[in-house]
């Protein structure tokens, strides 16, 4: 029996299936920023997103015509404090090692790289935007190559990245993206998306009450100060950590909201019902509001999750 079969039989035995559909994904993420011009330029010129829409108060950026990131000017809001919960990073996923190498070229030429890791399931670059918001640019290895623990959980690590190999993939086609050029590639590929969002939270148990018990994500690899949750067997759609000891809800600039996108209205209704049941049971701290395209859930740390259908 596979790990999927184990989960299926366990759900049947309990009489309920609380998992999100496998097609669930992360949609747009939104940030409150002080300097809209500088931050827009960073995500355009370094991350490689295209500006899809822009006015004096807001910019929408994306890839292949699909919106991925919304920047909202909010200069009057204070900067995020050292105690505030909020964003650890927004993770933009490219689909080839060659595209990751192109991103590495943009970062090296136009910004500064803060970290680079091999996570066994993925290869990742880390940097901060001009306002200190964390950014990850990564590519997944094929699922069949992901290592797993005995219980079927995807196993990850933080090993040094083969930076030279990633760079070479962009310039000589040694990755899986075909022959390239030494010229800097300005735009991320059209199939780039937001693969996951990683949060800094004040409580992992409060995080799980909303995102696992309420929204229906499955818990994956975990530690005493970190949780990864996902749908459909992915390594993680959301991460949460308490590494820096955040103690107060998000109040300053930084993350405004992000989207969880489900495939259909039935999945959305299941989430509504599950959130209602969790709220009735008592201990979880969150608020739910209706939106024209779905629902908005504000967690105990003041972070808004917008749930909508495709």
From TrEMBL:
Keywords noted in UniProt: Dioxygenase, Oxidoreductase
UniProt-annotated stretches for the region Disordered: 1-20
Organism this protein belongs to: Halorubrum californiense DSM 19288
GO MF term (any one): dioxygenase activity
Pfam families: Glyoxalase
Full protein name: Glyoxalase/bleomycin resistance protein/dioxygenase
Domain VOC: 25-140
Entry keyword Cell cycle: no
């Amino acid at each position: 029996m596979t790990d999927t079969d184990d989960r299926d039989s366990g759900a049947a035995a309990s009489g309920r299936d609380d998992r999100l559909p496998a097609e669930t994904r992360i949609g747009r993420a939104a940030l409150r920023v002080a300097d809209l011009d500088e931050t827009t330029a960073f995500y355009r010129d370094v991350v490689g997103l295209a500006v899809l829409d822009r006015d004096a108060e807001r910019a929408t950026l994306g890839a292949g015509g699909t919106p991925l990131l919304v920047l909202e000017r909010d200069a009057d809001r204070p900067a995020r404090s050292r105690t505030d919960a909020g964003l650890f990073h927004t993770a933009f996923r490219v689909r080839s090692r060659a595209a990751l190498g192109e991103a590495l070229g943009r970062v090296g030429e136009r910004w500064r790289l803060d970290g680079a890791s091999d996570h066994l399931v993925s290869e990742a670059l880390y940097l901060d935007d001009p306002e200190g918001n964390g950014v990850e640019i990564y590519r997944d290895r094929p699922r069949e190559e992901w290592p797993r623990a005995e219980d079927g959980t995807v196993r990850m690590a933080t090993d040094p990245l083969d930076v030279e190999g990633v760079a070479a993939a962009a310039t000589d086609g040694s990755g899986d993206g075909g022959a390239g050029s030494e010229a800097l590639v300005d735009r991320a590929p059209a199939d780039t998306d937001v693969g996951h969002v990683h949060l800094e939270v004040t409580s992992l148990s409060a995080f799980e009450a909303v995102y696992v018990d309420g929204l229906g994500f499955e818990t994956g690899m975990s530690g005493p100060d970190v949780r990864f949750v996902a749908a459909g067997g992915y390594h993680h759609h959301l991460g949460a950590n308490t590494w820096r000891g955040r103690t107060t809800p998000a109040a300053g600039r930084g993350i405004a909201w992000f989207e969880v996108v489900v495939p259909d209205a039935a999945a959305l209704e299941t989430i509504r019902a599950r959130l209602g049941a969790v709220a009735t049971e008592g201990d979880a701290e969150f608020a739910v509001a209706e939106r024209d395209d779905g629902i908005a859930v504000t967690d105990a740390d003041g972070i808004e999750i917008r749930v909508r259908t495709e």
